[in-house]
Amino acid sequence: MMKELREKLSSFPPGEFRSVYKSSLPDIAKAGLLNALKDGGFRAFHEKLILIPSFPHGIGVGVGLMAQTNVAGKILKLVLGSEEGASIREESKSLVLELQDRLVNGLGILGLGVSEPGWMGKLTNLTSTAKVLLSGEIELNFHKGFVTNGADAEGYLVVAREEEKNRFGVFFIPRDFPGLKIEEVYLDVAREATHCKITGENFKIPSHYHFIEDYSKLGADIHLSEMLSAAVLFCGAIRKIVSDLSHGNESRERFSVLGKLWDLSGLLYGKCLEISDKKDKDPNYKIEEDHPYGYEAILDECISILESIPNFDHKKEYPDLGLFCTIHPARSPVYIKNRLKQSKSWRKFGNFKEV
After folding, report:
1. Measured between alpha carbons, how far is 197 from 146 in angstroms, rounded to an integer?
2. Stated pTM of the model
3. Is the predicted pLDDT of residue 126 greater than 70, yes or no?
4. 113 beta partners
5. Pfam families from the xrefs (predicted)?
6. Pairing between strand 195-205 and 138-148?
7. DSSP state of 71
8. What pLDDT is attached to residue 84?
9. CA atoms of 29 and 24, how far apart (whole Å)
10. What is the distance in angstroms between the CA of the first residue and the CA of the last residue of the chain?
11. What stretches of the chain show up as alpha helix (H) in DSSP?
């Protein structure tokens, strides 16, 4: 089925991007790339995802997949799994099950809106608010500046502060909700993953649209899960470049450089599969237990190696590679926090405690 997906993506002109992801969803579903949204494993997902950058339009499609699987998909699975902090309303579960089935079968897209202008990656800076009314309805006011997969989404998960309880709930907003303002956003790289801004003022939604009580308990792991898939995509992108550059009569020096890139991507991919196995075996596993795991270092090293290759401009030849620098994982607050935590163990290396 991956062959059919490659053929589908090859059918779009090189400059086309707007219709690619949505039009390819049925083929993406047939290839099994949406199985992890329901009961499929992350290892199986990543073993296929690494191939996507070798397809036309692949990196942009991969971004859509990693967001759908690790972000919106994770929240739906939490509700259906009756996790602590997830809605236990039968109306909520029925709605979530319907959304999940549509996503798994390639019939729909769901976007998550967290980031806002000026929030700097901190939930405490969010200005979007939620208030429970006497009627039981919830009043929402929000402006989300960047929703991945949002341009074609049939619904949105919006994170907003419940001021009375000082927590950050996750609320569902259908695309056709009266008054919802949607503005498409286009990036210079990986444009097939269409994005948008969404705004809603004084929206009154039913109580069963409240899916998760407090996103702050999930946010770090959801972000790291998304970055895990980004790391797999990066490995695929590097291997595509190595494959392309290895054709023809090359010097021994060129092959040595390409070998380093292949080895580095292999080391990172192996670590990603190891973490994927942990996620599959233990539903309570948190990636922060093993984070950072080398993605940031290998990303920087591979870009440095690419820039050292004579007569080769990776920014011109492979512009979508720039995505991984744009969303560089070392810039996130989660990375900084976990690196500081990890650094406390460095000075203990090699020391033995006598029993």
Report:
1. 5
2. 0.94
3. yes
4. 158
5. Acyl-CoA_dh_M
6. antiparallel
7. I
8. 75
9. 9
10. 57
11. 2-10, 20-30, 42-49, 58-67, 73-80, 90-104, 219-245, 252-281, 295-308, 314-317, 322-326, 333-343
